[in-house]
Amino acid sequence: xxxxxxxxxxxxxxxxxxxxxxxxxxxxxxxxxxxxxxxxxxxxxxxxxxxxxxxxxxxxxxxxxxxxxxxxxxxxxxxxxxxxxxxxxxxxxxxxx
Length: 97
Ligand SMILES: [Zn+2]
Known about the structure:
Layout: H1 5-16, H2 22-34, H3 36-55, H4 63-88
Bound molecules: zinc ion (ZN).
């Protein structure tokens, strides 16, 4: 029983992401030879993926990682700003009395 186009669409995405085993790749390639719909799908996915990768190197960042990075960056920036002020000697005025 042949796989549905939906399954092959998933495999096409996995192929682009280099997540397919060589067996699965063969299976997909065999189907692609006979299926204009999936050939077109492959071209579409390739074009889309290339466009997205040009736009930003990483497509998805897990939300919790994103959160951690933002927290870290904010902390770093605060620390950095503070030390810059210390070095310049202008922004920090200690009370004298
Ligand atoms: Zn197909």
